[in-house]
Design brief:
Two copies of one chain form a homodimer. Helix content of chain A is 35%, strand content 38%. With 81 residues, chain A is α+β, with helices and mostly antiparallel strands. Chain A has one domain: 2-Layer Sandwich (Mth169, Chain: A), CATH 3.30.1280. Chain A starts with a strand and ends with a strand.
């Protein structure tokens, strides 16, 4: 079995309104040293196979077509056996 | 500056309907070897300080009170200087 850990993150140039709200909330709670918040998705997929080459190839397609919005997001992943 | 990387994950006993939808979608696309998907939040906070002890203490409160729902989610974090 292979576990894939995928990070789907907004591109740096894209405003993250949810992160902005968290930053403002933390400031209003007194945590003034927090200067930026980015909120991303962290996705774990379990594959019932040990073929790492195929999983990497499949993941590129899965991220491009299902998990990430290529207009606003980037992704990266790592595999664990 | 300290960057905190926070993972907010559903407890294993809590159903993840969003993950279930992704699993079903991947099956219908032919990726039958995917047997489980868990979708979590990945949050990056930048702190304008180098006091790691204070940041760790603040983060425990921030995660408990703002970022995670203690009824359904758990969290973990790591710090980067």
């Amino acid at each position: 079995m292979i576990k894939a850990k995928i990070y789907v993150t907004l591109k740096p140039s894209i405003l993250d309104p949810q992160g902005k709200v968290v930053t403002n909330t933390l400031h209003s709670l007194g945590y003034s040293e927090v200067n930026e918040t980015r909120i991303s998705k962290f996705i774990e997929l379990n594959f019932d196979t040990d073929d790492e080459v195929k999983v990497r190839k499949d993941l590129e397609v899965i991220c491009d077509k299902v998990l990430a919005n290529p207009n606003t997001e980037t992704y990266s992943f790592e595999l664990e056996k």
